[in-house]
Write a structure and sequence with these properties.
InterPro entries: GH, GH_1_N_CS, Glyco_hydro_1, Glyco_hydro_1_beta-glucosidase. By secondary structure, this protein is of the alpha/beta class. 41% of the residues lie in helices and 13% in strands.
């Protein structure tokens, strides 16, 4: 038996400890209580879930949310990051509100509050209402306007009990995987013509911040995926490729949010609409900046040794960069490299790049896919990343909380049930929940941290 990790260094008093989930990946009840279909429901119906998992069933969270809230309480978690399903609340994307859909989130919020758990909903975690998706989705400005209307409806119902809001989750992944490469819903393969989807998600975020503030929301942010980008070689071509990849996946989203400008005028010229006016909306002041971190990316010029794909995502040959495999001793079951110090590097680069324009950071996702109930490798992963986070904070990173991905196993988008990210195991035949060794470890971490911090 492996030796348990040594106690973690102590995080500051008031540091927020949480876990995460999303609606499409967990809720199920895809056709119940007036919920409309999402673009991901249609994507799954086309057979695009690789292992054939029943995404319409999910983990049964819609029916079993009290059981999962009890698991959160058993962890001692301060907060739960869940998402609100847009098509459950506004089935058509615009128009009539589904009162029964809102009622579900009302019950969930009450249950969390009853256990003293902070509600931290994300208002868009990839499940675009199907009518909007079929009309062009995030390629159309209309989708951003309709999103703001939906956000206003949710905020007016829940803002009295929800102190922490996230507008959108990982707009880079929606743009790249959904609109550029076609590996995620809606399955478009537009390459660089997908850029309007990035702009309209950013605009939707800005409009949503305005709607949340108008409803009295206390703390508003979003969740943005970030990875350090390493250059694979020493040639000018390698450096150009890595810089372009860093711009597309990191700066294209962070720069407008934090500086009110795109990385350069060439990108701004590719965006639709009154870009200068939109940027003033996009760069609304934020109370926190959510960072989702999993691993760095090694990037160079297109070459014969470039990866054909990464974790199931194919890379077209015509792209002006190529991904390389990072040489690490440890990989997750998803094939992702385990690089804990990448989190420290990332936080330092964000601090250096944006300075006082960067709000306090919350790690809104960090986790790994490993099978088995005795998941010691997940414990080692989380332990090492928390140590890296603590080092980053000692070097000046202002980080206020950490949400692990995820509370339970879930439908991992196009991978289905094949990748298990949860602290709690889901039996997809019975939907039985079984806490893993990592659940007990994280519970003990939270208990020790609160005791040592004097909470």
């Amino acid at each position: 038996m492996s030796t348990p990790p040594a106690p973690l260094p102590v995080f500051p008093p008031g540091f927020l400890w949480g876990a995460s989930a999303s609606a499409f990946q967990t809720e199920g009840a895809a056709d119940s209580e007036g919920k409309g279909p999402s673009g991901w429901d249609a994507f799954a119906a086309r057979g695009r879930i690789k292992d054939g998992s029943d995404a319409a069933r999910g983990t049964g969270f819609h029916e079993r949310y009290r059981e999962d809230v009890a698991l959160l309480a058993g962890l001692g978690a301060d907060a739960f990051r869940f998402s609100v399903s847009w098509p459950r609340v506004v089935p058509g994307g615009s128009g009539p509100v589904n009162a029964r859909g809102l009622d579900f989130y009302d019950r969930l919020v009450d249950e969390l509050c009853a256990h003293g758990i902070t509600c931290a909903p994300t208002l868009y975690h990839w499940d675009t209402p199907l009518p909007l998706d079929e009309a062009g989705g995030w390629l159309r400005r209309e989708t951003a306007l309709r999103f703001a209307e939906y956000v206003s409806v949710v905020a007016q119902r829940l803002a009295d009990r929800v102190p922490m809001w996230m507008t959108v989750n990982e707009p880079a992944e929606v743009t790249l995987l959904g609109y550029a490469l076609g590996e995620h819903a809606p399955g478009r393969q537009l390459l660089f013509d997908a850029l309007p989807a990035a702009h309209h998600q950013l605009l939707a975020h800005g409009l949503a911040v305005q709607a949340l503030r108008a409803a009295g929301a206390e703390r508003v942010g979003l969740a943005v995926s970030h990875s350090p980008v390493w250059t694979a070689g020493n040639s000018d071509e390698d450096r150009f490729a890595a810089e372009l990849y860093d711009t597309i996946t990191n700066r294209l989203f962070a720069d407008p949010l934090l500086t009110g400008a795109y990385p350069d005028e060439n990108f701004a010229a590719l965006m639709p609409g009154p870009v200068a006016d939109d940027l003033t909306v996009i760069a609304q002041p934020l109370d926190f900046y959510g960072v989702n971190y999993y691993h760095p990316m090694l990037v160079g010029a297109p070459a014969s040794d470039a990866l054909d794909g990464f974790a199931g995502v194919g890379m077209p040959e015509e792209l002006p960069f190529g991904l390389r495999e990072i040489d690490t001793a440890e990989r997750t079951d998803f094939g992702w490299p385990v690089v804990p110090d990448g989190l420290r590097e990332l936080l330092g680069s964000l601090r250096d790049r944006y300075g006082d324009r960067l709000p306090p950071v919350v790690i809104t996702e960090n986790g790994c896919s490993y099978d088995g109930l005795d998941d010691r490798r997940r414990i080692a992963f989380l332990d090492s990343h928390l140590r890296s986070l603590h080092r980053a904070m000692g070097e000046g990173a202002d980080v206020r909380g950490y949400f692990t991905w995820s509370l339970t196993d879930n439908i991992e988008w196009a991978e289905g049930a094949s990748q298990r990210f949860g602290l709690v195991h889901i039996d997809y035949d019975t939907l039985r929940r079984t806490p893993k060794a990592s659940y007990a470890w994280y519970r003990d971490v939270i208990t020790a941290q609160k005791r040592e911090a004097g909470a």
